[in-house]
Design a protein that fits this description.
- This protein has a single domain, classed as 2-Layer Sandwich (Hypothetical Cytosolic Protein, Chain: A).
- A three-stranded antiparallel β-sheet has the order 4-3-5. Strands 1-2 form a two-stranded antiparallel ribbon.
- A hairpin with a 6-residue loop joins β1 and β2.
- α1 runs antiparallel to α3.
- It starts with 7 loop residues before the first strand and ends with a helix.
- About 30% of the residues lie in helices and about 25% in strands.
- It has about 100 residues and is an alpha+beta fold.
Length: about 100
C-alpha cells in the first residue's frame, strides 16, 4: 500500500520545513464589504478562511518573525503590537 504524503509548510519564524500538523496557522481574514481590513489571528483549527502563514508552536519563532516583519510581508499590511501580544499569549497557552 502506498504511503500517504505528509503536507509540509515553512515556519515564518525559523524558516524550517515541518509537517503542517506541527505548525500553527496565522490567518488574515478576507477584507469585508464595508471596507474594513481583515483581522489577523491564530487559527488553531486550520479551517478559517483567508490568507495564511505558518509558525512553530514556539514563542521564539513568533518573536523572530516579528523582528524581521515576516508576517507583515506575508500579509502585505502593518500588524499592531496588540495582535502580536495576543498571539504570543495564545501560543504560550497552547503548550508552546
Amino acid at each position: 500500500m502506498r504511503q500517504k504524503r505528509v503536507p509540509m509548510r515553512m515556519c515564518t519564524g525559523c524558516g524550517e520545513m515541518k509537517p503542517k500538523k506541527e505548525l500553527v496557522r496565522v490567518v488574515k481574514a478576507p477584507d469585508r464589504e464595508d471596507g474594513s481590513g481583515g483581522e489577523i489571528s491564530l487559527d488553531l483549527t486550520g479551517k478559517k478562511p483567508g490568507r495564511g502563514a505558518y509558525l512553530c508552536r514556539d514563542p521564539e519563532c513568533l518573536r523572530a518573525a516579528r523582528k524581521a516583519r515576516r508576517l507583515e510581508k506575508a500579509f502585505s499590511c502593518r500588524i499592531p503590537d496588540e495582535v502580536y501580544c495576543r498571539m504570543e499569549e495564545e501560543i504560550a497557552g497552547h503548550g508552546g
